[in-house]
């Protein structure tokens, strides 16, 4: 599962590099990692990061804590205002 997620992140990263005009860097990365699927130019990574930053600025997020390679939802009293 972790390996698939890492490949997904790398594919998003390569797609963003293609989208931003860094074809040679993206092609070099693809030649090293040999992803299963193509990495067409895309700005999806930028959109995901932007959405995440907006949520973080609003303070509406809940931190995830790793326990034995399983992620659990654990309220963070500093950020989760619904506890009060």
Description:
This protein has 84 residues and is mainly alpha-helical. It has two domains: 1-42, no CATH class; 53-84, no CATH class. Helix content is 52%, strand content 10%. It contains three helices and two strands. It has a two-stranded antiparallel sheet. Strand 1 (64-67) and strand 2 form a beta hairpin. Helix 1 (2-19) packs antiparallel against helix 2 (23-33). It is flat. 8% of the residues are buried. The model is unreliable at 65-69 (pLDDT under 50).
The domain tally reads: 2
The number of distinct helices, counting runs of at least 4 residues, comes to 3
Q: How many E strands?
A: 2
Strand pairing plus helix content: what structural class? mainly alpha
Q: Taking Cα atoms only, what radius of gyration do you get, to the nearest Å?
A: 17 Å
**How much strand content do the residues show?**
5-15%
In which range does the helix fraction lie? 40-55%
